[in-house]
Design brief:
Blueprint: H1 3-11, H2 14-38, H3 41-57, H4 61-70, H5 74-85, H6 91-109, H7 113-145, H8 150-210, H9 219-230
Helix pairs in contact: 2-7, 2-8, 3-4, 3-8, 4-5, 5-6, 5-8, 6-8, 7-8
């Protein structure tokens, strides 16, 4: 279809078509923004998790925290929340801080996705509104001219059909993108849960290893006790 014919077709949709095009533009902007924001999150989280785990297994807590501070990934914020309370609070408080930060990261990963859901829900109704307006215009033309026929109702019917099709297309695209990003974010949250659990397990092991064992009773004292009884 030539671009001029397409432009005329869009114009025939009236105000409702303008709203639908605006919804489509919002969905496109949000999709690009979320694609860039979520790009490489999983790989960066795995790499940082492996790096921090290696440092902690070696007892290099300072180096592990420094690696998180240098990183700009979502996992770094989770690890830093644990490092900030390590040694200053009971371990269950450290685990709670890590979980809170993980949930906050999940909220940031899902940001703006509500716009896609809104477009997917609203666009069909905007198209339906345009359909009703187009049919009303067609009947108004019949009433004004006192005549029937395709030439009289063509403008109104064209607006009704264009807005209906535009609303459906915008809604389908928005719903598909919404479901895609939701599933992608859900997978990221599972991965972040795994790396944060591994981080807490390593911290727990190091904390358990740092607890001094009970001092054993000296062997000479035990040997001296029977000798005292004989005397």
């Amino acid at each position: 279809m030539p671009s001029q014919d397409l432009l005329n077709l869009v114009r025939s949709g009236g105000l409702a078509m303008a709203v639908i095009l605006g919804c489509g533009f919002v969905a496109l902007v949000v999709s690009v923004e979320r694609t860039l924001a979520l790009w490489g999150v999983l790989a960066a989280a795995r790499d940082l998790g492996d790096t921090v785990a290696r440092h902690l297994f070696r007892g290099e807590v300072v180096e592990g925290r420094a690696a998180c501070e240098r990183s700009r990934t979502a996992a770094a914020d989770i690890f830093l929340a644990g490092f900030a309370r390590l040694g200053r609070a009971p371990f269950d408080h450290v685990a709670a801080a890590v979980e809170r930060e993980r949930q906050a990261v999940g909220l940031r990963l899902r940001s703006h996705l509500w716009m896609l859901g809104t477009v997917g829900a609203v666009a069909p109704f905007v198209g339906l509104f345009g359909t009703i307006v187009g049919i009303m215009r067609a009947f108004h033309q019949i009433y004004s001219t006192g005549q029937g026929g395709f030439a009289v109702v063509a403008e109104g019917i064209s607006e009704a059909l264009v807005t209906t099709a535009g609303g459906i297309v915008a809604a389908v695209l928005a719903v598909v993108l919404y479901n895609y990003f939701q599933s992608r974010v859900q997978r990221m949250l599972v991965e972040l849960k795994l790396v944060s659990d591994e981080f807490l397990e390593v911290l727990a092991e190091r904390q358990f290893a740092a607890v001094p064992a009970a001092a054993p009773v000296p062997a000479p004292a035990l040997a001296a006790a029977p000798a005292a009884e004989k005397e």
